Amino acid sequence: MKSTIVIGHKNPDTDSICSAICYADLKRQITGGEYIPCRAGEINGETEFVLKKFGVETPRLIESLEPRIADVQFREIDGINMGISLKRAWEHMRDENIQTVPILTKRGKIKGILTLGDQARFYMEDQDASALSKAKTPYSNIADTLQGEIVVGNPDDKFAKGKVVVAAANPDVMEDYIDENDMVLLGNRYESQLCAIEMKAGCIVIGLGSKVSRTITKIAEEAGCTVIVSPLDTYTCAKLINQAVPVGHIMRKENIITFNLEDLVSDVKNTVSKKRIRYFPILDNEERYVGIISQRNLLNIERQKVILVDHNEKGQAVDGIRSAEVTEVIDHHRIDSVETMSPIYFRNQPLGCTATIISMMYRENNISISPTIAGLLCSAIISDTLMFRSPTCTPADESAARNLAAIAGIDVEEYSAAMFNAGSKLGKKTADEIFHIDCKQFKAEQMTLTVSQVTSVSRRELERVKTKMLPYMEELLPNSVADMLFMMLTNIIDESTELLFVGQGAKGVVSAAFDSEPADNSVMLKGVVSRKKQVLGPLIRAVESI
């Protein structure tokens, strides 16, 4: 069974990361399946402190859920080298039931490709008796193709000059059409064999498994003539011998269409739909061949199963969410626009933190909470409720956090101060890093609002942040998908927020939302610490009323 990803929103906060880790743990214990916690962005300083405190690895980063070739069940078929005969290549393609095979270098790089069509064209169009020499065919290929053995000569030598001749006439007639370096197909007649060698043939092929006399062997060795003995009759030898040509002679070397494991399936589909080719080689990041994909493989791709935690809005979800199969949502925000193909488990409660919901689900399923999981869940609740100061905090949140703290062995007040201090180190961060620490997008009517928030226990630190954030926001807006940008500079100790804003009409929206007269693209909001409950709602209502 394919694993299920558990993931929070973009620009993840502590609740998003910790809830993904803990819910994946809970699902594994309940179902026995494979659930992998992931993240949709870089973690902030506060979350880094939490994970380090409880010895938990940072979840794997996923930038997009758009399926890639690596997610497709392509065929891991062996390639062949360019010296192999057409006969062996055909047998390989027949056994694997494919119509295309890649030709590889010793290092696994694509040298060319061979198709059944290429082989058919060679047999139908290239009937020149010099085909083997033009292809510089190894004698080992010829012996293998004719099911024979080389009794005189070096298997690694190549038939590089002359043509193929069938010696069906008397020796006196043979002299008229055998040239130097030719390959002569003949029977067990001593006179014909001797004549061919004396005419300086490069190779003689003796059919019907006839025994080669010591005299002929000695004369051939002295003349430098290769001798191959085949159990097949002369007609069959003549019919099959061109199959000894190495694939490198007829393989396609140019305009080869290949794909990389990291290529998006959607892009690959667009390409292959325009081509009359059934199979395409797949390469890894080092350009080495790993397998073959067909158009049928692209139609049968299995969608990645995903559980969303701490969000349900499409704009906040990891890129490519439409290509995945959302199976569950665990959240505490307003319900928005994530769409599913079928009914799912959706749990949304008006609490201060997603982690509170997950701690409830542990108890509901009679699953004991380990100290590590308790520490992560407690940290998420403290973070999201600003240590119970946020108006979104409910008695259930605080009760859950204190019970979890007891299991984790931490003092809530002391631990909260250390955690917030770790997350408040904003001075060394760039304006771009600060803005995207905790940044979310929301839809209101036909407009898109981006609302970022940073918290600190230091008024002076927030003042320093403000001086560089407004110029940055003005510069960011033209390249942003948002119509207005907002940033909350929240002082946890004072329980206040200075709201910065840019964008056409933003001042009027803020004025209407908070019944105030903003100055210099900012407004001070006393008693406001919650984006979800105290800022987002008024902003959206103000936009909708304009």
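Above is the first protein from milestone M3; the second protein from the same milestone is given next.
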Amino acid sequence: MVTAIITAIVILAVSAVVLFLFYRSKSVAPGSSVAKSVSSIGTGEPLRVRKGESMAASAGAHQSSNSSLKDRLKPRYTALAVLMAGIFGSLSAKLWSMQILSSDEYRAKSDENQLTTIKTPAPRGRIYDTEGIVIVDNKITPTIVADAEVAEDRAVLMRLSALTGIPYAVVRQRIQDTNGGAQAQREVSSDAKPRDVAFIAEHPDAFPGVSVQRRAKRVYPYKGLAGQVLGYTGTVTDAQLDAIPAGRDYQSGDEVGQSGVELTYDGYLFGSHGAKVVVSDVDGTVHEVRSETPPAQGSDLYLTISAKVQKIAEEGLRELIAPDGVIGAGTGTSGAVVAMEVDTGDVIAMANFPPFDPTHFVGGVSQEDWNRYNDKESSGSPLLNRCIAGQYPAASTFKAFTGMAGLHYGFADSSRSWNCGGVWTGFGEKYPQKCWKVEGHGPISFRQAMVVSCDTVFYEIAKNFYDGATTLGMEAMPDYVKEFGFGRKTGIELDGEGEGVVPTPEWKAKNWENAPEQGQWQPGDMSNMAIGQGNVIVTPLQMAVGYAGIATGKLPKPNLLKEVRNSSGEKVVGHTPEFTGQPNARQAELDAMRDALRGVAEEDASIPDLLSQYDYECACKTGTGEWAEHDGYAWFAMYAPYDNPKYVVTCVITEGGAGASAAAPIAAKVMDGCVKLGAGSLDTQLTPTEEVKRSVPYRGTGAGRVD
């Protein structure tokens, strides 16, 4: 507005000068020196009297010439005057409108330009286990913050550096960081020492623009316990700012969920910003605080996870794989355990090994830790949630589902028997396939084949499907297996879940589209699938859902969220169990498979002795997924109690060898924890889960398939 007024004054002055010159030219005397000067414009010569011409005549002639020049210039001066008058009139009207008619509106806009709203971060909601044990908390810590202009005050920067012990350059860099907004105060030091806080409070004149605030930081009381499930937080990314979910007010610099539960349920955990309205200038310097609203903490989550059962699972994995705190010094190199309620889908434990501690991500993960976490050879990929994203050969635990297919289509029943000679040549002498027991099992029934995991019986079932493809279709067996949830995601609300693979002719052709000869469906593809080898890939969570389907006849949708409570402790969100399918299985078929799996618990080699120490009856199955030149993937799956199934547990150990010796003891102990949890008698000491940072090359046990 000031600029407009100055411009109007300048234009008015110029107009006045032009008009003054115009009118002055009209009043100049004909014989004056000015007249003479003007009369000679354009001639370049002085005024002279021609020979024989009188002075009067000469003067008259010049006077006539002068009048003629004025007549020619008069329209131009007039047009210029009109133009100047028009411009001045327009500016005057605009100034009148701005200063008089719209003064209130412009004054309000001016005030708005001076006022800035600064958002202050809110504490995230806490996370509890199913019994109310807090597993993710907030710690309110004194934090030294500084206004933006402090970055240009060398004296204050030097004092801050000397006080906190943080290098001068780092202090200045932190204060220059605009991630939190131009006017927001910048964090210099979190979890400040009491003496530093006291010194700043006692010497405010020495630290202008510096203050101490109490801010919340994420705390993990049990460190790496359920780390892959809980996930971690981090500064909001550009991608997240570009696609802010509905109902959330992300601001640059906010801490938001980046993985696991922290990411999935960020909408509940993320609090409401505080707001401080300040008067600031164009440089961002704050001169006055007009109003301030405190931040509101996010809602608290109660998970279905039991911290105690989770600890049992994690300790079992550690004792097996890294008994001396060194990966490679025990049996196997990594592992996963899932425990779930069969009738609700509530996940009780989801353990991974190696573990990782989300504490290292608070305030930003260091490059050293990030490199270590992503070094597969030395660290074992601890950030990977193997329970949902680890995809493994299913091994003989898959026989429960191909066996169900055989029962459903009439290729197996309780009255039929087969003969296992150790080597099977059902697809021709040129294509022999071996049973894991190379000397053979001899005459054997379907139930006994499940108990001792005889491969020959399942080769025969596969051959029946292959030979019957003209009427049933080549995909009859894989399609039936998929009814138990394989080959697709379970639907758990965690990011990164794998789908697994149930191979079909179509899948193989697509997977090998660049090598068509290898993409042809062969009889061996069917027989390998029947025993859970070949291209069959599953996740531990899929296996848990599948066994829950056998135990109950329905497929539960896995769930981690028990309830959400607001800051007042009121329940605002609950959970209702969901089911994703019901396998097409007759009751007699389910009864036959359940009885066979019960036989594994009662009759299979070392399994009865292992289970005798626990006060529950169960159904179960062992397995070993083959891996060329490595010990196999040790599997164990079980559900209990047998007569009234409540829980299912699955366990897989990479390079663990035999499932009966590596995976079964861990799963059985976890099942015991689930049963005691349900009875209210579980008494497990909770201690932090520490990361394992040492590893040596794994030599393996050399154990072959025995299940």
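Note on the second protein: The radius of gyration is 42 Å.
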